[in-house]
Specification:
Layout: H1 2-19, H2 26-43, H3 61-88, H4 92-111, H5 115-133, H6 140-171, H7 176-185, H8 192-209, H9 217-224, H10 227-251, H11 257-280, H12 285-305, H13 311-340, H14 351-354, H15 356-370, H16 376-390, H17 394-420, H18 434-452, H19 455-458
Length: about 450
């Protein structure tokens, strides 16, 4: 709970620092605050996990693991923001405060034990992003993305709340343990309201994670938002949403898996094909990452479809690998777009000659996203495929393997452009600021470390 209080107070402090024009102190203070929140989480690791505040939240290993991931990825994103936000607006404190408030909501989603906290966490996480997506007031694409995200987000919240209301009407409680007790106590006479509630919850949560056919907002919002905000959305927000989804189904709905498993299985297959085939057809690197994030949502659904003892560690490993690679990819896109003025694949042509280090970093990120061995992405995909195989989802595995091949093709397009194509632009060297080099180094080292020694992450939960 100390982490939530720390981040909430930190967001307010950052706003006051902006009021008093302390622009240069924003990043150091924010990073110190994030470090303080990490300390609180680490101190909770060896404590007995018990629901706090009348059963509202619980900081078990699952919640702590995903919260630590959320804070670390947010810190990396903010390290990239040192020059990025200053080039957009003079009111930099707004960006930091909104990201911190969104992060607070993400941690609530990671640790909720009551439907009320799930709803509050999702709304805190989302409302801040509605503003951040459209914070470029003079950019029509940013405005359109913000409006689309707001409308679709409000629509999905309606499904989520209606599902919660139906489950409350059937079970008489918002508490996950009480709901699970109701399911166990009534194995043959579950209320039809409860089944309808599960269905509406699936729709609402699939909107949040960007799973097809509820993905329509994802490519346009990711494309229209500032690149750094897209990086945050596609990593921290997606990981927290999946953590909340996995907690719900593993805690309360496991006895009814024969009802909801075919639904999620169908959604996962549709998501894989729509995400990968759409990404294959893109010419914009940023839009390709947006569609590929839909495909990765399909892979992460494996952990929910095949719920078991390994689901939590599998989805944490996959979310970690995907988040690190995405931070590298979006950070590299910022640098390349600054030099070339375009976010198409052609902007990466000849990058290996202009900056070998940046080309190597992007190559590691693309290989990890494609699931090539010796990267964290391979470990994440391997764990997802393993738990699906353990539950005998053979058709899903075959279709997922086909989609993995499609993913390799469009990710390697970037590598081919960097190493085997000549740049049409001026062949001047792409400069990498120190903060970008630091973030890239940390992300690459962790990606390779997890790829070679996966136990260092898997055994955490």
């Amino acid at each position: 709970m100390g982490a939530i209080i720390t981040l909430s107070l930190l967001g307010i402090l950052v706003l006051y620092m902006g009021l008093y024009k302390a622009k240069n102190a924003l990043l150091p203070v924010t990073l110190l605050g994030l470090a303080g929140a990490l300390v609180f989480l680490i101190l909770d690791w060896n404590k007995v996990a018990e629901p706090l505040y009348s059963g509202m939240i619980i900081f078990d290993h699952f919640a702590i693991g995903f919260s630590v991931l959320s804070i670390l990825i947010t810190a990396l994103v903010l390290l990239l923001s040192k020059e990025y936000f200053w080039s957009i607006s003079e009111h930099v404190a707004e960006y930091y405060a909104l990201i911190l408030f969104s992060l607070t909501g993400a941690i609530l989603v990671n640790s909720y034990h009551n439907f009320a906290m799930l709803f509050i966490g999702i709304e805190i996480m989302s409302v801040a992003l509605y503003i951040l997506v459209g914070i470029r007031k003079q950019d029509f694409a940013s405005n359109e993305a913000s409006l689309k995200y707001f409308l679709m987000g409000a629509f999905s919240t309606g499904f989520l709340l209606f599902g919660i209301a139906l489950i409350y009407g059937a079970s008489g409680s918002f508490d996950l343990e009480v709901i699970k007790g109701y399911v166990i106590a009534h194995p043959h006479d579950i209320s039809p309201l409860f089944y309808a509630g599960i269905l509406f919850l699936i729709v609402g949560l699939c909107f949040k994670v960007g799973a097809a056919p509820f993905h329509f907002w994802t490519p346009d919002v990711y494309d229209g938002a500032p690149i750094l905000i897209t990086s945050y959305m596609s990593t921290v927000v997606k990981a927290a949403s999946f953590a909340g989804m996995l907690r719900l189904f593993s805690s309360a709905f496991v006895p009814l898996n024969e009802y909801w498993t075919p639904i999620l299985l169908t959604i996962a297959i549709i998501t894989l094909f729509i995400g990968n085939i759409s990404a294959l057809m893109q010419h914009s690197f940023k839009r390709m990452l947006a569609y590929s994030s839909i495909a990765h949502a399909g892979y992460m659904l494996f952990a929910v479809i095949s719920i078991g003892n390994q689901s939590a560690s599998a989805i944490l490993a996959y979310a970690t690998a995907y988040s690190l690679a995405s931070v590298i990819a979006f950070g590299a896109l910022i640098l390349v777009k600054r030099e070339v003025g375009s976010d198409n694949f052609s902007a990466f042509n000849g990058l290996a000659k202009r900056n070998p280090w940046l080309a190597l970093v992007v190559t590691v990120a693309m290989l990890s996203l494609a699931g090539i061995p010796l990267t964290a992405g391979f470990i994440g995909k391997f764990m997802m495929f393993t738990i699906a195989m353990n539950n005998y989802h053979i058709v899903l595995l075959i279709l997922a393997a086909v989609n993995a091949v499609i993913g390799v093709f469009y990710y390697l397009r970037v590598v081919v452009a960097m190493y085997f194509r000549e740049s049409e632009q001026d062949s001047s060297k792409v400069n990498i600021p120190v903060n970008y080099s630091f973030v890239f180094l940390i992300a690459v080292l962790i990606t390779v470390l997890i790829g070679i020694y996966p136990d260092c992450l898997i055994k955490l939960i």
